Amino acid sequence: MTTQARVARLGPPLVIFLLVVVLWEVLIRALNVPRFILPAPTAIGSAFVNTYGAVLDSATYTLRNALLGFALGCGAGILVAIATSRWTTVREGLLPIAIAVNSIPIIAFAPLTNNWFGSNNPLSKVAIVVLITFFPTMINTVRGLTLVEPAKLELMRSYAVSEFTVLAKVRIPNALPYTFNAFKVCSSLSLIGAIVAEYFGGPRKSLGVYILQEAQLFRFDNAWAAIVIASLLGIAFYLVVITIERRVIPWHASIES
User: Fold this and answer.
1) What's the CA gap between 251 and 253, in Å, rounded?
2) Which residue of 69, 85, 135, 137 has the fewest CB atoms within a 10 Å radius of its CB?
3) Residue 99 shares a structural domain with residue 26
4) Does the residue 231 lie in any domain?
């Protein structure tokens, strides 16, 4: 993609973003909205400048837990998908469990994992992220491994190749777009899970605890600064996944040239 094409593609979103920020600032000042309801962007920016050290330390701690949980949850999801894709009974037996687990809100799991591992133990937050990333990855990967064109499978069987070769040459390449779709969803879920889990207990240096305590102390500018950082981390994580996807499966129709 040329520089001109990149500018043409990124220009409209940036312009819209700037317009929203300006409109936000103007409305806050014109309507005299109290800071505890919604601070102005300039107030949030000023709060970040004054507290950036603490906010970045908290963000780093939480991001580390989110990344570890993402890696473990998605990795386990892929392995289980490969192991169960060949057995319809096992696969169909796991689907109701996946639906049930995904239906349970994070706030129901957080107290349990805090009790298992300790509220200040990072494993209690990592476990939450593993739970909410495992099943989306498993379900999407299983779909990709099983929804293969029959003609491709018949061709491979005509060559009398092993099932392992079919898996490596046909099923896994077919599953990669599905798996990356799961990764993109889980990139946001992992941060949401880590932060929400921290609301139920964790060290002061965690982002969720920082946001909660700053809000309780009526320092809403600081809390919003941390929320903005969390949003930026989520966007950055998503973009990293997209970049890797473009490198790994540039041939797929969903990847723009």
Assistant:
1) 7
2) 85
3) no
4) yes
Quote the CA–CA distance of 243 and 251 in Å, as a whole number. Answer: 14
Residue located via tokens 């990139």 = 187
Domain that holds residue 16: 1-33
**C-alpha distance from residue 128 to each of 181, 184, 196, 200 (Å):** 20, 18, 9, 12
- pLDDT less than 70: residues of the chain: 1-8, 253-257
50 contact partners, CB below 8 Å, separation of at least 6: none
Do 127 and 215 share a domain, yes or no?
A: yes
* Distance separating alpha carbons of residues 242 and 24, to the nearest angstrom: 30
Q: 133 near 74, Cβ under 8 Å?
A: yes
Residue type, 48: F
**What is the pLDDT at residue 253?**
56
DSSP letter at 170? I
Q: Which of 217, 198, 200, 216 is nearest to 208 (CA)?
A: 198
110: which 2 tokens? 């957080």
Q: Provide the number of structural domains found in the chain.
A: 2
Which residue's entry shows tokens 């320092």? 219
pLDDT at 167: 86
